Each structure stands twice: as C-alpha cells, then as structure tokens.
Amino acid sequence: MSTPVTPGSPSTTTPPPIARPPIRVLLADDHTLVRRGVRLILDGEPDLTVVAEAGDGAEAVARARDTDVDLAVLDVAMPRMTGLQAARELSRRLPDLHILILTMYDNEEYFFEALRAGAGGYVLKSVADRDLVEACRAAVRDEPFIYPGAERALVRSYLERLHRGDGLPERPITEREEEILKLVAEGHTSKEIGELLFISAKTVERHRANLLQKLGMRDRLELTRYAIRAGLIEA
C-alpha cells in the first residue's frame, strides 16, 4: 500500500533526470573509410551524434559555419587545409566550438601546435575505439584530453627544454606562409592559390619567395619535401 502524502509535505517521488540532447559532431577526414569507422563509434553512443562530415579542412570550416555543431573532430593531414589550419580558422570564427584532433601522428610538435590552434584534445587513430568517445565528452566539458601514455613523455620533454633554458617550440613560418606552402606543395598555381585565399597572385609570389629565403630552399620540389616532413601533405 502506498504511503499517503500529507498536504504541504515534500513528495517522496524523485523527479526524472532531464534528458540532454546529444553532442552534435562534425567529423573531418579525407579518407571515407576512416570517417565511416569513426562515425560508427560515435553514433553508437546515446550522447553523441555525427551531424556533418567533411573531406578536407576547408570543407570542415564551411560545414561548421552552416551547421549547428558542438564539436569538430579533425584529422591533421587533409587536402587544401590541414586539420590544424582548420582548427585555427574555426577558433577565430566560432570561438564557442569545441575542437578535437584525431590523428595517426604520435608527435609532440603536432600536439603543441594543436593546443595553439585551439584544440582541447589529441587522440591517436590507433586507439580511437578506446579513447575517442571519452575524449569527445571531455572536450565538450572544456577538459583537456591527452591519450594515455603521452603525458609522461610530454612532461619529460617539457622539463628538458626548461632545463636547457628553452621554451615551447617556435613556429618556423607564419600561418599564412604555412597555408601557401601546403597549396604550393599540392601543385596549385599562384593564380589558383590567390583565388582560394582571396589574395592576389603577386602576394602569393611574395610569400613564396619569403618561404624559400626563410627555409633556405631553392624551388618547389624542396618546398614539397619540407611540406611532407611537416605533415602538411602526405607523401
């Protein structure tokens, strides 16, 4: 028999929890099979849903601007605009958007560059099935996520730099030069690059000359090799 509730006394029934809408995710990777696999992982969770996909960084920026998303999951190496370049652009244009880097590169330089670009987490593709879901949740809570095992190496490296009197790694080239370097290495002409970046071909040539001088290189071939080493394009 149920216990009567007298007038004015608090109800003994606990109110049901308020259902929250799932986290809306933008997924950007230039490999369709990778996107499909990652989407299966995320859509399998009740609090996560992929609402948009992109095949390169430029498309990711465009999709984020015309779609209501809470979190952008970006690959590093993509055509036209890398995930790190896209992260910088999204941080400027959509400061409330949470960003997570999903990459195959277990690389300290990329990790620090991701933080500079505004990302709240860094997850390796090799352990995405284990770490990605929690990383997405942490990013939306504004909690940093570093894949397990990386913390000790990062802290050791940072302490070594402090001991030597060094700071964090410096960027060898500017963000604009990096954008142009990537497009040059992908084979775009100065006119095409100018149209993509909304600058004149003459300005592109000036940046290209600055790149050659700053990096001590002579031609496009050497710039392309540098872009591959820097992870701007894939070999």
TrEMBL record:
The modification 4-aspartylphosphate is found at D75. It comes from the Bacteria. The keyword Transcription regulation applies. The keyword Phosphoprotein applies. Residues 1-12 have a biased composition (Low complexity). Residues 24-140 form the Response regulatory domain. It holds the Pfam family GerE. InterPro entries: CheY-like_superfamily, NreC/VraR/RcsB-like_REC, Sig_transdc_resp-reg_C-effctor, Sig_transdc_resp-reg_receiver, Tscrpt_reg_LuxR_C, WalR-like. PROSITE patterns: HTH_LUXR_1, HTH_LUXR_2, RESPONSE_REGULATORY. Residues 166-231 form the HTH luxR-type domain. GO terms for biological process: phosphorelay signal transduction system; regulation of DNA-templated transcription. PANTHER family: TRANSCRIPTIONAL REGULATORY PROTEIN NARL-RELATED, TWO-COMPONENT RESPONSE REGULATOR. This is DNA-binding response regulator. It comes from Streptomyces swartbergensis.
